[in-house]
């Protein structure tokens, strides 16, 4: 687990560039610049890196490794330092990808970051806005083709986490009205695209995936208060690493 998620702190660091600002507590006359927004090209480079870390080629585990991970032996119960498990006793080959996707979307789709994206684009048109971030997120997830193999299942796992976090952003009480408006508009467009694309998908697994996504968004729109998004297990803990005293 620590090796697979070795990049988790780099994810958090890169995300700080998105709608980020370099600042210092300047004093009058000292010549320092109090606030300097991260340049737009650096913000877009960070978005590219964050979304690139979610590709199946990056997240899938080698077959040679999967073939030597047995179920946990008797007397060794599961604990918080392990990946979540959806496959009973067997090692879940998709759980690591689910954890990595959740770490990424938790920092990328934070309501405060989303509000800053709206604000910075309104003030400076060359800066990325929330619409751009969400469009690129969906281009890197749901709009990517996926087959019936292991890589395809990883892609669908990442898609599901992305949709859950987008619904959570749209429903977050701390999100601004415009953040909710933009997010819901992207969700509506995605629902229509999924409904149109489901019959054309080559793999039956992808057809079901598209249809499921469209139904989930429809349920969210029709019953927002009762809507319960699919549960995404929390990833194993990161910092601080140590023992409790």
Question: Which helices and strands occur, and which strands form pairs?
Answer:
Elements (H helix, E strand, L loop, with lengths): L7 H8 L5 E3 L11 E3 L2 H13 L3 H4 L3 H4 L28 H14 L2 H13 L6 H11 L9 H22 L5 H21 L6 H19 L23
Antiparallel strand pairs: 1-2
Helix pairs in contact: 1-5, 5-8, 7-9, 8-9, 8-10, 9-10
Quote the average pLDDT. 92
Bin the strand percentage.
under 5%
Query: Which residues sit in consecutive blocks of at least 5 with pLDDT less than 50?
Result: none
Main β-sheet description: 2 strands, antiparallel
Biggest sheet strand order reads: 1-2
Task: Return the domain count.
Answer: 1
Number of helices: 10
Which structural class fits the helix and strand makeup? Answer: mainly alpha
Task: Using the CA coordinates, give the radius of gyration.
Answer: 20 Å
Task: Kindly state the percentage of residues in helix.
Answer: 40-55%
> What order do the helices and strands follow?
HEEHHHHHHHHH
How many strands appear in the DSSP assignment? Answer: 2
Termini separation comes to 24 Å
Write up this protein.
α8 (150-171) runs antiparallel to α9. The protein has one domain (8-21, 35-62, 89-222). It has 10 helices and 2 strands; from the N terminus they run αββααααααααα. It has a two-stranded antiparallel ribbon with strand order 1-2. It is globular. The protein has helices at residues 8-15, 40-52, 56-59, 63-66, 95-108, 111-123, 130-140, 150-171, 177-197, 204-222, and strands spanning 21-23, 35-37. The chain has 245 residues and is mainly alpha-helical.
């Amino acid at each position: 687990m620590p090796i697979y998620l070795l990049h988790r702190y780099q994810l958090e660091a890169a995300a700080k560039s998105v709608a980020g600002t370099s600042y210092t507590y300047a004093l009058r006359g000292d010549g320092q610049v109090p606030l300097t927004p991260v340049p737009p090209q650096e913000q877009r480079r960070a978005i590219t890196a964050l979304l690139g870390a979610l590709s199946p080629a990056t997240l899938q585990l080698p077959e040679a490794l999967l073939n030597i991970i047995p179920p946990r032996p008797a007397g060794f119960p599961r604990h918080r330092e392990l990946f979540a498990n959806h496959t009973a006793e067997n090692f879940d080959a998709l759980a690591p990808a689910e954890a990595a996707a959740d770490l990424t979307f938790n920092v990328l789709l934070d309501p405060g970051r989303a509000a800053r994206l709206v604000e910075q684009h309104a003030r400076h048109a060359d800066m990325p806005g929330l619409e751009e971030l969400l469009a690129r997120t969906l281009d890197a997830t749901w709009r990517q083709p996926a087959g019936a193999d292991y890589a395809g299942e990883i892609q669908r796992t990442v898609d599901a986490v992305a949709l859950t976090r987008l619904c959570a952003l749209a429903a977050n009480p701390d999100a601004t009205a415009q953040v909710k408006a933009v997010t819901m508009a992207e969700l509506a467009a995605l629902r229509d695209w999924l409904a149109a694309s489901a019959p054309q998908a080559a793999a039956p697994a992808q057809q079901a995936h598209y249809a499921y996504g469209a139904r989930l968004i429809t349920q969210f729109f029709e019953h927002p208060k009762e809507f319960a998004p699919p549960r995404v297990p929390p990833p194993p803990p990161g910092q601080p690493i140590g023992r409790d005293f």
